[in-house]
């Protein structure tokens, strides 16, 4: 039997692992089906069992030094292998004697163009999982166009533009209103932004609308974050909900299958980020047949329009249908006020 090391990229992901591997080259199994507990290296734990170990990558490669134990494994399985490119990971594979290396990812591309390194370390793509029959099949994007009356020059730095967007009170109210409408339709809503101040502003607007959103951001302690996710998961699957979060916290490794609506509150352009965000809606859930992305299309700055062009290509590549804005009329029992643009 090959000794197997699974490299994970963050501590929390070590607590919920489902890996597939080969025993003796003949028999397949899943870790979750095997008896016992599996040693974790990382998060204050360091008691490898020597057969099947789950490790946080940063715990076995620090300051240029690689833990000698990596030489003991015949197979290395890398979760979220699109992160490969870091010098620390390169050092691990240089020290390892593994005959087999398996990489797992939903986005085998890197924004910095270093994705060829993934294939250098893990080999070519051997299998691409097909969309499950039970997965949502009606995928639509509803654009909400809004002109920004900004005071910045047309060539302003993009971070300055983002800051202006986040401070736009009318836009923030419109985002909260879209979430309210979707909630009133019984949908399970995820609102994503990259700025915690923006997140707080949207949350405040929702509270004014007599709604109680779940708010997930990096300032929460691990205990509070775990409690919040537990409360979210205990809701009946059919119950509507609104989750506000930063993209960094739910971009990967986050799993809440009931989600069927994404409100993109801050523009993105890279297809990898878009795939990760949309992927939060693609989890199988009984009764979920359609998913919807509400995309705030900001105009007024050329950079924002270029980002929208890239998102449109990304949506189409994922099989989404972009609905004409005039055809996307909200259908809710709650009075609707969309008079902001």
TrEMBL record:
The keyword Nucleotidyltransferase does not apply. It holds the Pfam family ResIII. The keyword Secreted does not apply. One of its GO terms (cellular component) is cytosol. CDD domains: SF2_C. One of its GO terms (molecular function) is ATP binding. Residues 30-126 form the Helicase ATP-binding domain. SUPFAM superfamilies: P-loop containing nucleoside triphosphate hydrolases. This is DNA or RNA helicase of superfamily II. InterPro entries: Helicase/UvrB_N, Helicase_ATP-bd, Helicase_C-like, Helicase_Restrict-Modif_Enz, P-loop_NTPase.
């Amino acid at each position: 039997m090959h000794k197997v090391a699974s490299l994970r990229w963050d501590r929390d992901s070590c607590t919920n692992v489902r890996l597939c591997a080969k025993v003796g080259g003949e028999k397949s199994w899943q870790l979750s089906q095997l008896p016992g507990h599996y040693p974790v290296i990382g998060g204050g734990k360091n008691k490898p069992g020597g057969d099947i170990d789950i490790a946080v990558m940063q715990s076995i490669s620090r300051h240029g030094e690689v833990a000698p134990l990596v030489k003991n494994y015949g197979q290395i399985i890398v979760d979220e292998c699109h992160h490969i490119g870091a010098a620390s990971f390169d050092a691990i594979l240089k020290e390892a004697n593994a005959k087999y290396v398996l990489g797992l990812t939903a986005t085998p591309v890197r924004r910095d163009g270093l994705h060829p390194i993934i294939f250098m370390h893990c080999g070519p793509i051997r299998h691409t999982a097909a969309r499950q029959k039970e997965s949502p099949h009606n995928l639509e994007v509803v654009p909400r166009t809004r002109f920004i009356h900004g005071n910045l020059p047309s060539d302003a730095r993009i971070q300055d533009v983002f800051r202006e967007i986040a401070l736009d009170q009318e836009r923030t109210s419109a985002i909260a209103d879209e979430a309210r409408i979707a909630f009133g339709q019984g949908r399970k809503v995820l609102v994503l932004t990259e700025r915690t101040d923006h997140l707080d502003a949207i949350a405040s607007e929702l509270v004014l609308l007599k709604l109680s959103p779940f708010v997930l951001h990096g300032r929460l302690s691990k205990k509070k974050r775990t409690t919040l996710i537990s409360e979210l998961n205990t809701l009946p699957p059919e119950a509507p909900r609104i989750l506000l979060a930063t993209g960094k916290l739910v971009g990967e490794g986050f799993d809440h299958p009931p989600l069927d609506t994404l409100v993109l509150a801050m523009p993105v352009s890279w297809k990898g980020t878009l795939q990760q965000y949309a992927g939060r809606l693609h989890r199988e859930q009984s009764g979920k047949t359609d998913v919807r992305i509400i995309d705030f299309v900001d105009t007024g700055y050329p950079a924002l329009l270029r980002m929208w062009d890239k998102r449109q290509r990304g949506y189409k590549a994922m099989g989404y249908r972009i609905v004409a804005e005039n055809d996307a009329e909200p259908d809710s029992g709650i009075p609707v006020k969309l008079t902001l643009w």
